[in-house]
């Protein structure tokens, strides 16, 4: 499978976001990963739909909105209308509301013609989202606890990647996007890909590197 690199703008300088997004496209990024945090589901607050709306005209790359927020269903409209290409929502935020909330939210995202995905934290079995695999364009496995960039990859997640890919194959979706988020580096990218992930989020690994083009291309090797 072709590997896609999704630099996370959480690690960017927010005062020059427009230039940064344009530069990421030139440097070979495949998606722009937009970390949306509400100060409740996770401690920090980042940005809302306005950021998506403002960067939308500045790049042709898909905008990957990772919603680390409570009550995600109430926010889908704003991110869809702002121009997100894919919206992912956390299993944990949905499961605390009701057993059907995750599925309802995914269906709502799709009703806008936007791709959708479910996210599991490192301590949530990937099996918990098996029932929504048929609805998902992508599944996102967190390899750190969400909230901050620059954390270390949790190695136990490697097995979950294999389980997720095997189940995607079993569902007749061998090419399903499986995204890994947190602590992806030049050192571990190959093992993560070999385990079955094809979309790698990279925040600090790209932004702290002197040559973004070089880093992005090496992550695909
Ligand atoms: C963490 C975010 C990640 C983060 C990744 O809550 O969802 O997208 O920016 O950053 P790195 O690649 O530095 O771990
Ligand atoms: Zn993220």
What would you note in describing this structure?
33% of the residues lie in helices and 19% in strands. The protein has 221 residues and is α/β, with parallel strands linked by helices. Helix 2 (49-55) packs parallel to helix 3. The structure holds D-xylitol-5-phosphate and zinc ion. The site of D-xylitol-5-phosphate has 21 residues, from strand 2, strand 8 and helix 8.
Fold topology:
Elements lengths: L3 E4 L9 H10 L5 E6 L11 H7 L7 E6 L7 H7 L3 E5 H5 L5 H11 L3 E6 L17 E5 L14 H14 L6 E5 L7 H7 L3 E4 L1 H4 L4 H8 L2
Parallel strand pairs: 1-8, 2-3, 3-4, 4-5, 5-6, 6-7, 7-8
Helix pairs in contact: 2-3
The site of D-xylitol-5-phosphate (DX5) has 21 residues, from β2, β8 and α8.
List its traits.
binds D-xylitol-5-phosphate, binds zinc ion, 8 strands, 221 residues
Annotation field: number of helices:
9
- How many E-type strands? 8
Bound molecules: D-xylitol-5-phosphate, zinc ion
Given the helix and strand composition, which structural class is it? alpha/beta
Q: Residue share in helices?
A: 25-40%
Cα separation of the termini: 12 Å
Q: What's the rounded overall pLDDT mean? A: 98
Order of helices and strands: EHEHEHEHHEEHEHEHH
Widest sheet: strand order? 1-8-7-6-5-4-3-2
Report the β-strand fraction as a percent range. Answer: 15-25%
The general outline is globular
In the predicted model, the low-confidence regions spanning at least 5 consecutive residues are none
Task: Summarize it.
This protein has about 220 residues and is of the alpha/beta class. Helices cover about 35% and strands about 20% of the residues. The protein contains nine helices and eight strands.
């Amino acid at each position: 499978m072709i590997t896609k690199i999704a630099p996370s703008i959480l690690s960017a300088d927010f005062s020059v976001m427009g230039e940064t997004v344009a530069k990421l496209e030139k440097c070979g990024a495949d998606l722009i990963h937009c970390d949306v945090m509400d100060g409740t589901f996770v401690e920090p607050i980042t940005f809302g739909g306005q950021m998506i709306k403002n960067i939308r005209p500045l790049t042709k790359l898909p905008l990957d909105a990772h919603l680390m927020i409570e009550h995600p269903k109430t926010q889908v409209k704003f991110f869809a209308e702002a121009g997100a290409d894919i919206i992912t929502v956390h299993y944990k935020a949905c499961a605390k509301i009701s057993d059907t909330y995750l599925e309802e939210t995914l269906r709502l995202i799709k009703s806008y013609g936007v791709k959708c995905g479910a996210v599991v934290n490192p301590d949530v079995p990937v099996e918990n989202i098996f029932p929504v695999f048929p609805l998902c364009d992508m599944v996102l496995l967190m390899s750190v606890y969400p909230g901050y960039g620059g954390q270390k990859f949790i190695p136990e997640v490697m097995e979950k990647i294999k389980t997720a890919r095997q189940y995607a194959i079993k569902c007749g979706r061998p090419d399903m996007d499986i995204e890994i988020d947190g602590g992806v580096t030049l050192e571990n990218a190959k093992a993560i890909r070999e385990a079955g992930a094809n979309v790698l989020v990279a925040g600090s690994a790209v932004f702290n590197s002197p040559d973004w083009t070089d880093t992005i291309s090496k992550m695909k090797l």
